[in-house]
Amino acid sequence: MAKSAPQRVLTIQSHVTFGHVGNDAAVFTLQRLGIEAMPIHTVQFSNHTGYEIFTGEVFGADHIEAVMDGLVQNDLLNGVDAVLSGYLGSVAIGQVIHRALDIVRSHNPQAIYVCDPVMGDKDDVGGFFVDDTIPPFMQKTLAKASIITPNHFEFEVLCGRLINTLADAVTAARALMAQHDALHTVLITSFREDDAVDELMTLAITPSEAWCVTTPRCDYLPMPSGMGDTFSALYLGHILNGRSIEYAIRYTTSALYAFVMDTDNGARDLSIIREQAQMIEPLVLFDALPIV
């Protein structure tokens, strides 16, 4: 009896020796869900940049192109089911990711592209922590993305206006999807309706569905890095495994909350190894409620 091939994800993100951000969050998460991860690293650092000291190297677009070229020459991209990207240090890296996606979709037109449009956060001074070339590039990326995973601030940047209510979020997300043929799912993390202070909402919006998972807000200082990277990979993994939108957002949000709760207050890195079983079956499942 022939064995079915596992789903494959090309993930183009950062790499750190210590901690779980970028590919070091995504690869393990995808593998834990039974999915083959194919990482290309955009940087190799000792640890993430939230530390006062970090060492290593930023890889240029030519480095990523060289890795891609080997995959192309060996016909190793013809079985890729999804592409995953996160923080971009430069537009040039983003352009290489777009070219990689074009190659993948030349073999598999149905390949999913999950883009975490990392740009900033409401709780950061000034909002943005990327240079001013990245937000316009993220706008262009909407034309290629299947699923986007912005936080509340980033969603407002993409929409070009403030979003204060659930109804407004659904309307704005569906307007984005109506403008971009490839885009079929908008996930919004850390959503606060009318600036609520004691809870956070995670939204999953498609042209025909809208779900909300509400969790208590955790006021760690600093918040551990790697949450967005883990979230995007975990949601993608559930979708590739055939789960529904409701299931994927419910299980992903519940697992992420468990990881945050397992992380010590003040720790800079998200704890995903000790409680890895909760990627599959969270001990506490928060409800996913329809937004009406």
Automatic annotation (TrEMBL):
Uppermost EC category: transferase
Pfam short name (any one): Phos_pyr_kin
Domain (Pyridoxamine kinase/Phosphomethylpyrimidine kinase) ranges: 24-256
GO molecular function annotations of the record: ATP binding; pyridoxal kinase activity
E.C. number: 2.7.1.35
Keywords from the named record: ATP-binding, Kinase, Nucleotide-binding, Transferase
Domain of life: Bacteria
InterPro entries xrefs: PM/HMP-P_kinase-1, PyrdxlKinase, Ribokinase-like
GO cellular component: cytosol
GO biological process: pyridoxal 5'-phosphate salvage
Descriptive protein name: pyridoxal kinase
